[in-house]
Amino acid sequence: MLCHGWPEHAFSWRHQMPALAAAGYHVIVPNQRGYGNSSRPTEVTDYDIAHLSGDLVALLDHYGYDDATFVGHDWGAAVVWGLTLLHPKRVSKVINLSLPYLERGNKPWIEFMEDVLGSDYYFVHFNRQPGVADAVFEENTFRFLRNMYRKDVPIAEPQPGNALINLARMENPLGEPILSDSELSVFVSAFESTGFTGGLNWYRNLDRNWRLLADVNPIIRQPTLMIYGDRDAVARSERLTEFVPNVEVVSLDCGHWIQQEKPDETNQAILRWLNQRDAA
Q1: Percent of the chain scoring above 90 in pLDDT
Q2: 219: Cα within 13 Å, side-chain hemisphere
Q3: What is the Cα–Cα distance from 6 to 9, expressed in whole angstroms?
Q4: Residues with catalytic annotation?
Q5: In terms of CB atoms within 10 Å, which end of the chain has fewer, N or C?
Q6: Distance between CA atoms of 250 and 248, rounded to whole angstroms?
Q7: Could you report the per-residue pLDDT of 124-149, keeping only the tens digit for each?
């Protein structure tokens, strides 16, 4: 089961679906809660990790599977980590891209980020000023997504304010596009239809998730593949093996949008790892 990130869609796995199917796998690729034609509840708490992981378990039940290999990118990876902690018997293997396992720590995640990174940091801003970013992204849907899906973006001094709101208003995008015009149009039309609030509500449950995970065993025992992009702004975990002892790490020469920027290399890494696990 392939789990997309933000601001994405099941379409972000378009290069992986045929490769995995050709290798004999049944591939399930949902638009998750808040995205596309999936449900978009109005209550923020309906987007916590219990609900998001419950949706994936319900899909397993629908198709009659006891467990599956779950593949996540970005926020999808966060949900897969949480799913594996909450429903370990339903997850046979884990493959996550970009976002490593997030240690729980002693302080709720948004509180910690606010202390360290300030109130303008986008995770914090989405929580402390609900509705502000949603409106800006909706007013600038094409521009925001065009500016977001880029590679080889030059490093620049951070500007005042929320970096993603600034990005949504930027007239001239930096770097190079990773999507064709027709591919970009799929994402743009989806978010023009749904808006961004459903996906942003995933961020607004981060501290709630911290509390929901308080009593679970934090160690993930399943065989795990972690795929990083060497030029991804998301920080790597220095203690990944302490929480995910059966992990193999692969690095690709790309930025954040790993499976879209380097589809062939991503497919090769996933299929090689799956073949090794299946042969063991």
Answers
A1: 95
A2: 5
A3: 8
A4: 74, 256
A5: C
A6: 7
A7: 999 999 999 999 999 999 999 999 99
The length of the chain in residues reads: 280
Q: What percent of the chain has pLDDT over 70?
A: 100
Place of tokens 């990083």: 228
- Beta-carbon neighbour count of residue 75 at 10 Å? 21
Whether this prediction's pTM lies above 0.90 is answered by: yes
* Omega of the bond leading into 7 within 30 degrees of 0 (cis): yes
Q: Compute the distance between CA of residue 266 and CA of residue 252 in angstroms, rounded to an integer.
A: 8
- What's the CA gap between 207 and 44, in Å, rounded? 12
pLDDT band for position 261 (cuts 50, 70, 90): very high
Residue with tokens 């990790």: 49
Output the CA torsion 151→153→159→164 (10° steps).
-10
Cα separation, 86 vs 97, whole angstroms: 20
Looking at residue 25, what is its pLDDT? 97
Q: Which two tokens stand for residue 116?
A: 């360290």
